Amino acid sequence: MSSSALKDRIQDAMKTAMKSGDKERLAVIRLIMSALKQIEVDERIELDDSRVLGVLDKMVKQRRESISQFKSGGRDDLVDMEQAEIGVITEFLPQALTAEEIDTIINRAISDTGASSMKDMGKVMGLVKPQITGRANVAEVSGKIKSLLS
Fold first, then answer.
1. pLDDT at 1
2. Which of 11, 25, 42, 123 could join 113 in a cystine, given CB atoms 3.0 to 4.6 angstroms apart?
3. How far is CA 75 from CA 39, 67, 72, 82, in A?
4. What is this structure's pTM?
């Protein structure tokens, strides 16, 4: 049996999509499963929930980057497709953090590390990142930390 409850949830969703004939949803879920399987085969490991979250987070980030490129290229059809994929992927991510929750996590990390300048950025991010992975945009949170430390 898989060591990841999240991976099991994704497999169940794939079966449901197959039975209901939802081809678009099924295609995205198969992309997710393929990415997970690739890592398991390459590294000869069984993924745990935190690693699965990391993969899902990366997939959402890639699609956000694609959306910004497609928007600048005037390809609204591809923007819609990427946004639909993000919609399916985010179903498996935990609920997003609110701005207040993010601020609390950042402030706690800054006080725990005693950070006072930009050279402490790595320490702060080291504490913050595991708490926000899959629940907030890491780049935006990093920007907030930079503005607080500079």
1. 41
2. 123
3. 31, 9, 8, 11
4. 0.78
pLDDT in tens, the chain (150 residues): 457 899 999 999 999 999 999 999 999 999 999 999 999 999 999 999 889 988 998 999 999 999 999 999 999 999 999 999 999 999 999 888 899 999 999 999 999 999 888 898 999 999 998 888 878 888 889 999 999 888
Domain 99-149 has CATH 1.10.10.410: yes
Cβ count near 112 (within 10 Å): 11
- C-alpha 118/C-alpha 5 separation (Å) is 38
Q: Name the residue with tokens 């992309």.
A: 31
Q: How many CB atoms lie within 10 A of CB 64?
A: 14
Q: ∠58-60-65 over CA atoms, to 5°?
A: 95
Question: What's the CA angle centered on 72, arms 69 and 77, to 5 degrees?
Answer: 75
- Are the C-beta atoms of residues 106 and 145 closer than 8 Å to each other? yes
For CA atoms 150, 119, 102, 63, give the dihedral sign.
positive
Close Cβ partners of 45 (under 8 Å, ≥ 6 residues apart): 39
User: Residues 6 or more apart from 74 whose CB is under 8 A from it?
Assistant: none
